[in-house]
Design goal:
The structure is a single chain. This protein is α+β, with helices and mostly antiparallel strands. The chain has a domain of 37 residues: YefM-like fold, CATH 3.40.1620. Strands 1-2-3 form a three-stranded mixed sheet. β1, α1 and β2 form a beta-alpha-beta unit. The protein is elongated and about 80 Å long. The two termini are 59 Å apart.
Length: 85
């Protein structure tokens, strides 16, 4: 663990923060006595991201429906209506 005085913090703050950014703990001293400790933040626990079952979602929405090429072209034209391109 590194140490820094209150004066070091006042005069060299970017350097002290760089130590903390690199994962080091820094003990702050005033007149040779510890008064504080700077520590890197702990990483928040990773939350599992639920996976979306797109196949099941499409089945719920459309069932076993199969679109004709003409229907697909009409839907595409409707989506692009008004877009510049």
């Amino acid at each position: 663990m590194r140490t820094a005085t209150v004066a070091d913090l006042r005069n060299h703050f970017p350097e002290v923060v760089a130590w903390v950014d690199q994962g080091e703990e820094v003990e702050i001293l005033r007149r040779g006595r510890p008064v504080a400790r700077l520590v890197p933040p702990s990483a928040p626990p990773a939350r599992p991201v639920p996976k979306v079952d797109f196949k099941a979602q499409n089945k719920r929405i459309w069932g076993d429906r199969v679109f004709t090429m003409k229907e697909v072209e009409e839907m595409r034209a409707f989506e692009l209506d008004g877009e510049e391109g």
